[in-house]
Amino acid sequence: MTGDWPKALTYGPFQLIFVDIANAKGTHEGIAYGPADVIAATAVGGLLVLDDFESGLLFQGKPDTRWRYWMHHPQLITCEVLTTPTTAMLLATRMY
Asked: What digits encode the pLDDT tens for the residues 59-71?
């Protein structure tokens, strides 16, 4: 398979997706594909792994919108795993 990453989503649903593309993690307005597409391509019970986040613990109650999106998405149960004292990865399971 060749092409841009959104093409791969058409082969889902997937049990595991490692999200390492800024558009797929962000909540940027006006992008053609983004987090909702990644979640839709994840099977119920599937796992999403997202890296390169600043730890939500550092935001003192005001985490960035990307972190909040993944931590509080109604279809996901998400936890933060510290990878350094200031950075984290998120692990999310799609519930429905």
From this structure: 766 767 888 889 9
Q: Are 80 and 71 in contact (CB under 8 A)?
A: yes
Exposure string over 61-76, b if 16+ CB within 10 A, otherwise e? eebeebbebbbebeeb
CA pair distance 56, 59, nearest whole angstrom: 5
Q: How far is CA 27 from CA 34, 55, 86, in A?
A: 7, 17, 21
Phi/psi for 15 (5° steps) reads -85, -25
CA 87, 93, 49, 62 torsion-angle sign? negative
Phi, psi of 19 (to 5 degrees): -100, 110
- How many residues are recorded in the chain? 96
For the chain, the average pLDDT equals 86
